[in-house]
Specification:
The protein contains nine helices and eight strands. By secondary structure, the protein is an alpha+beta fold. One of its GO terms (molecular function) is DNA binding.
């Protein structure tokens, strides 16, 4: 990916109004659906003048990027249109959807994700014929440390880089009593992932759920890792069934990498 210093717009100066709009949208995203007043937005977005908040929100409202509700503003439906366009433009998302189209009807739900910092970010979900909850939606996040997707992607990262990424986060957040909360056990798990070619989280992200994941070959070396996962009820996660799901996922990620 090119940086600003390498591009034709290296001398450009970011427009203050656009920076304020981004800060306002970030503040509304952090509010998780709770309306924020102009005064609250002014504080949450970095002490922007209240008059500027109102003006920026008026412009965002015209583009359906925010909605005016009782109590202030919330995110608007126009963001969904933009986020879907962004996701559709990502080659791995297109490749994932193409592979899902070739699979036909199957009971498994498969999910595509990438890694941002110490988070797994879900990009696309293909629902199977047997719905299994919880299924993460596109855009949702989970810690890399307690998900099969996260471990699959971390396994493609040099161990020193994993240490640098996660060392300050110990103890890691525990979503269940089975979650890995320390770096050394996680690193040992990642070594096993490299040997097996796939990762498993055994009730580490959700009680009663076993998840299997494999990374898209070559994606980590290109600078942005991607991985595909599927989940099973713990009661159905026999060794044979886990192996079959792992084989399915490996076929999908191999097809994504090869473009066939």
């Amino acid at each position: 990916m090119s940086t600003r210093s390498e591009s034709v717009w290296a001398s450009a100066s970011p427009a203050p109004a656009v920076l304020r709009a981004g800060a306002i949208l970030d503040a509304l995203a952090r509010s998780r659906g709770r309306a924020l007043t102009p005064a609250q937005l002014a504080a949450a977005a970095g002490d922007i003048p209240r008059a500027s908040v109102v003006n920026v929100c008026a412009a965002l409202h015209d583009r359906d990027l925010v909605r005016a509700v009782d109590g202030g503003f919330v995110l608007g439906p126009g963001l969904l249109r933009l986020s879907q366009a962004y996701l559709d433009a990502l080659d791995p998302v297109r490749a994932f959807k193409e592979q899902m189209g070739r699979l036909g009807d199957r009971e498994e739900t498969l999910q595509l994700a990438t890694m941002e910092g110490a988070d797994v970010v879900y990009l696309a979900v293909h629902e199977g014929t047997v719905l299994l909850r919880p299924t993460s939606k596109a855009g949702s996040r989970l810690p890399v440390t307690c998900t099969a997707l996260g471990k699959a992607m971390l396994a493609g990262v040099p161990e020193d880089d994993v240490r640098a990424l996660l060392a300050d986060g110990e103890p890691f957040a525990a979503r269940t009593s089975w979650s890995i909360t320390a770096l050394d056990p996680l690193l040992a798990d990642l070594r096993a992932v490299r040997t097996a070619g796939h990762a498993v989280d055994d009730q580490e992200a959700a009680e009663g759920i076993v998840c299997v994941a494999a990374t898209v070959p070559g994606s980590a070396t290109d600078g942005q890792p991607f991985a595909v996962s599927s989940s099973l009820l713990k009661s159905q996660a026999t060794p044979d069934r886990v192996a079959a799901v792992a084989d399915l996922i490996k076929d999908v990620v191999r097809g994504m990498a090869e473009g066939n």
